[in-house]
Amino acid sequence: MSDLPNCPKCNSEYTYEVGHLLTCPECAHEWSNSKGFPEEAGRVWRDANGNLLQDGDTVTVIKDLKVKGSSSAIKGGTKVKNIRLIDADHDIDCKIEGFGAMQLKSEFVRKA
Ligand SMILES: [Zn+2]
Fold first, then answer.
1. Is 36:94 a contact under the CB 8 Å cutoff?
2. Phi, psi for 107 (deg, rounded to 5)
3. CA-CA to 7 of 20 to 30 Å: which in 21, 50, 76, 89?
4. pLDDT tens, residue by residue, 35-84
5. Among the listed residues 85, 90, 97, the one whose alpha carbon sits nearest the alpha carbon of residue 43
6. Contact 39, 32 (CB under 8 A)
């Protein structure tokens, strides 16, 4: 079904891609997918105010965001802890209480 490599740690075949990282759902191991993206892409992530964002940062959502497939929206002012920056259109990977795993755009958050 997929041509992703098995997890190098536990050999799980249920690996999936998040940005240019591969993630194993069984042991939570993450590693970079060597085909394609160089280790250091030179990309930087900035919040709505132009501050640099880093993995593990806590950010605040600055406006109400509609959630696909949900009738509720993420309210402006919602704090999002432990973000992960990914190289995608929605470039922040995170978990939001009540919504679960989400991807946000860095232009709609501000470093807390
Ligand atoms: Zn694994």
1. no
2. -70, -10
3. 89
4. 554 545 567 899 999 999 999 999 999 999 988 788 889 999 999 999 99
5. 85
6. yes
CA dist 17 and 48 (Å) reads 27
Whole-structure pTM value:
0.60
63 Cα to the center of ligand 1, angstroms: 36
Could you tell me the distance, in angstroms and rounded to a whole number, from the CA of residue 100 to the centre of ligand 1?
21
Going from the Cα of 85 to the center of ligand 1, the distance in angstroms, rounded, reads 21
How remote is the CA of residue 26 from the centroid of ligand 1, in Å?
5
Q: Please name which of 99, 92, 94 lies closest in space to residue 73, comparing C-alpha atoms.
A: 99
Distance 34 CA to ligand 1 centre (A): 17
Measured CA to CA, the distance from residue 38 to residue 20 in angstroms comes to 9
For residues 46 and 106, the answer to whether their CB atoms sit within 8 Å is: yes
Cα(5) to ligand 1 centroid in Å equals 11
